[in-house]
Design goal:
- The structure holds 2 protein chains of 2 kinds.
- Chain A has helices spanning 5-14, 28-38, 74-84, 141-147, 165-174, 179-198, 248-255, 274-286, 303-314, 333-347, 362-371, 382-394, and strands spanning 22-25, 43-47, 58-59, 68-71, 88-90, 99-100, 104-108, 112-123, 128-134, 153-156, 201-212, 217-219, 223-226, 259-262, 267-271, 293-296, 321-328, 353-359, 376-379.
- Helix content of chain A is 35%, strand content 25%.
- Chain A is α+β, with helices and mostly antiparallel strands.
- In chain A, a hairpin with an 8-residue loop joins strand 5 and strand 6 (99-100).
- Chain A is built from 12 helices and 19 strands.
- In chain A, helix 2 packs antiparallel against helix 3 and helix 5 packs across helix 6 (179-198).
- In chain A, strands 8, 9, 10, 11, 12 and 13 form a 6-stranded antiparallel sheet that branches. Chain A has a 4-stranded antiparallel sheet with strand order 1-7-2-4, with helices on one face. Chain A has a 4-stranded parallel sheet with strand order 15-17-18-19, sandwiched between helices.
- In chain B, the strands form 2 sheets. Chain B has a 7-stranded mixed sheet, sandwiched between helices.
- In chain B, helix 4 (109-119) links the parallel strand 6 (99-102) and strand 7 (125-127).
- In chain B, helix 3 (82-94) packs parallel to helix 4.
- Classes of the chains: A alpha+beta, B alpha/beta.
- At the A-B interface, helix 4, helix 8 and helix 12 of A face helix 1, helix 4 and helix 5 of B.
């Protein structure tokens, strides 16, 4: 689960991590009032969407308006907010369709001496939490990681111990920071790692992490993601969820216990198991088609779930054909077909439906399909299924 | 011959009084009975607070340590719900269980970080979590896979996925290629047993003649496996990577199956495997054929 920058900063501040003074604004008036309240000669107006690349992003309605902008007066804050609020911001991460901005964060301007990168993640290979830092702060950290991996410094966190002050000092020296900043690093870095651990994060990214003229570490940006599997022990995070940031059909699917991801193609897929579902997308592409979605009905699909799955797939106007690919293991094929047939009637199919079944009780299931009298195209194996579903569109 | 699951394996189920835990314990017991009629492979279950009871002939113990002592268990199949599963695995490690097979899906990642720390230096091996389990066809299965699709034979099968493993086993079986042992390692960010661990075991297992590995997008485990194969594996290897068409930044069901920052793509994994001499299937329909080709290349 992702949250907004302003929410992340509120949580970080409560955990003792230094963030800039900031005020949330949902109207141009609030933006102007925030500028006054901050009391400085300079403030930053920041669009609150989950995607990154906001500074370089521009609005569809105002092609010259950046997603993050410096302002020098309350009037300027108001004018920018008028253009930004309710408009659609397109960044490198939003895709062409962009994201509507409903909230702004107005922050004090800082005396920035240098910009660093700090990320905390779970490193699969090491099997633990790791803190990563780089002197190359800013927006292009992926490029740094790719082209000059030696500029990414790491500190593995020993399970149960957190980041040690010694590790924070080592990072600070490697980054070439002066004595002033050293004390700040020793305080800031362990706190941030502890925040990651205490809150079951999947990522905490501070980019940039700025060092101010007087040597203080301040989290100028904050990208925080939580482990969905651990939300049961952080129930308060659920109210931070912004459903406008999520795809409507993906939310609908997850409410039904389905795993669905919308894609751009025209062949809908309904599959049991994540690996097989991804492979089914690959299979369609391999035979010249384009998958419209990833959909995993899980191990114990019932009539309700299959019906809802069909509805979600068919709600996508691009879908011109549907492929069902089931390998029945413990979940028997005849039980799946029973659900399929019931769902077929409830949904009302208008596009070709190709069904490939294999596994437990497959003979019985195939007979049920054939005897149903419904316009369902049976397939014998994976290749046959792909050819038939791709062919049903081009025919 | 086979790896990890042998005639000596004696299994208890943690979470046996739950519906899923009991169901799969029964199915696994049936399979083991067909294979080894004179032996009790599944010797009981553990549910704290329910020790002394019996469910469908399985004695229930309060703790894993008690099950080890009284029923001679050396293996545990874990169906404990996600919030308590990390702790259940640690209980196994503490009790000296040799093989822990964690089926449970949805364990918090940081709980698994804790489990990893406990595993280091212990004598326990963990398979999973979030996996179908492990089967040595003709001996026993510990997990949720349908037993009949796995024929006994010489292919060591390693996979991150559930139903895709069944698909692979099915294709292999249709070509007369049974399996020595098939292992689902799970698709979570942190798992107990990796591709490399199993490649090493299969390479050293006289009952395994060839190896098939099925990976997916996300992380770099397959790339590390490719490096290992190049250096250490002499047996023919075939592979498949799921998610060739998956878009970046989207999670595809498995917590680990997400491409980020231009790494972990199917293309780079396939390239690494091919460079290590692995025959890589382009289509999931050709996994069995890829194994056949890898074996034929070695023989020809």
């Amino acid at each position: 689960m992702k949250i907004h920058e302003y929410q992340a900063k509120q949580l970080l501040k409560a955990a003792g991590v230094t963030v800039p003074e900031g005020i949330v604004a949902k109207t141009p008036d609030e933006a102007a009032a925030a500028f006054e309240q901050l009391g400085g000669s300079l403030a930053v107006v920041k669009s609150q969407i989950h995607a990154g690349g906001r500074g370089k992003g521009r609005f569809k309605e105002y092609p010259d308006q950046p997603g993050v902008v410096l302002v020098r007066s309350a009037a300027e804050a108001r004018e920018n907010a008028e253009r930004m609020l309710g408009s659609t911001l397109v960044t490198i991460q939003t895709g062409e369709e962009g994201k509507q901005v409903n909230t702004l964060l107005i922050e004090e301007g800082l005396d920035i001496a240098s910009e660093l990168y700090l990320g905390v993640i779970v490193d699969r290979a090491a099997g633990g939490v790791v803190a990563m830092m780089s002197s190359e702060g800013g927006t292009e950290i992926e490029k740094v990681a790719h082209e000059t991996p030696e500029k990414i410094l790491t500190a593995p966190v020993k399970a149960g111990y957190g980041l040690q002050a010694a590790q924070a000092r080592r990072l600070a020296y490697q980054l070439g920071l002066d004595a002033n900043a050293l004390a700040s690093a020793q305080a800031f870095l362990p706190k941030l790692v502890q925040f990651f651990i205490d809150n079951d994060c999947t990522q905490v990214e501070i980019n940039p992490l700025v060092v101010t003229g007087d040597g203080q570490f301040v989290a100028l940006d904050a990208k925080v993601g939580f482990d969905d599997n651990a939300l049961f022990r952080h129930k308060n995070f659920l109210e931070l969820r912004d459903l406008t940031e999520e795809d409507e059909s993906e939310v609908r699917a997850s409410d039904t216990g389905l795993s669905y991801v919308k894609l751009d193609g025209n062949i809908g897929c309904l599959v049991n198991g994540a690996g097989l579902a991804m492979s089914t997308m690959d299979l369609i592409k391999h035979h010249g088609g384009e998958p419209a979605n990833f959909l995993d009905v899980g191990g114990g699909a019932n009539v309700e779930q299959v019906t809802e799955a069909f509805r979600i797939i068919l709600a996508d106007a691009n879908v011109k054909a549907v492929l069902v690919n089931i390998f029945g293991g413990i979940m028997k094929c005849d039980v799946i077909v029973e659900a399929l047939l019931a769902a077929y009637d409830q949904v009302g199919f208008t596009v070709p439906l190709v069904v490939r079944l294999e596994g437990t009780n497959v003979e019985k299931a195939r007979e049920m399909l054939a005897a149903s009298g419904k316009d369902i195209i049976p397939a014998t194996d994976l290749t046959d299924a792909a050819k038939k579903v791709v062919g049903s569109i081009s025919a | 011959m086979s790896i990890l699951v042998t005639e000596k394996t004696r299994v208890i189920t943690q979470g046996i009084t739950g519906k899923t835990g009991l169901f799969h314990s029964q199915k696994s017991r049936e399979y083991a009975k067909e294979c080894q009629p004179d032996v009790d492979v599944f010797v009981g279950g553990v549910t704290p607070g329910k020790g002394g009871q019996e469910v469908d002939g399985f004695p229930v113990f309060n703790s894993v340590a008690e099950a080890v002592e009284k029923a001679g268990a050396n293996t545990s199949m874990v169906f404990v719900p996600p919030p308590f599963c990390g702790d259940a695995i640690i209980e196994c490690i503490d009790a000296g269980i040799e093989l822990i097979v964690a089926i449970t899906e949805g364990i918090p990642t940081l709980d698994m970080v804790r489990v990893e720390a406990y595993l280091k230096g212990s004598k326990s091996r963990l398979i999973g979590p979030n996996c179908p389990g492990i089967i040595t066809p003709g001996i026993a299965k510990i997990g949720i896979m349908p037993g009949y699709i796995h024929k006994p034979g010489g292919v060591g099968l390693i996979s991150k996925s559930g139903t895709l493993t069944y698909e692979a086993a099915w294709q292999l079986g249709n070509l007369g290629l049974g399996q020595s042992t098939a292992v689902g390692i799970g698709g979570d960010p942190i798992i107990g047993t990796t591709f490399i661990d199993l490649l090493e075991l299969f390479e050293n297992d006289p009952g395994t003649d060839a190896i098939m590995m099925i990976g997916e997008i996300g992380g770099n485990a397959e790339v590390l496996a490719a490096e290992y194969i190049k250096e250490h594996v002499t047996k023919p290897v075939a592979g498949f990577i799921a998610g060739q068409t998956a878009p970046p930044g989207k999670r595809m069901g498995h917590a680990g199956a997400i491409i980020s920052g231009g790494s972990g793509t199917a293309a780079e994994k396939m390239e690494a495997l091919e460079a290590a001499g692995v025959v890589v299937a382009k289509s999931p329909a050709d996994m069995g054929k890829a194994m056949q080709e890898a074996i034929a290349r070695r023989n020809g």
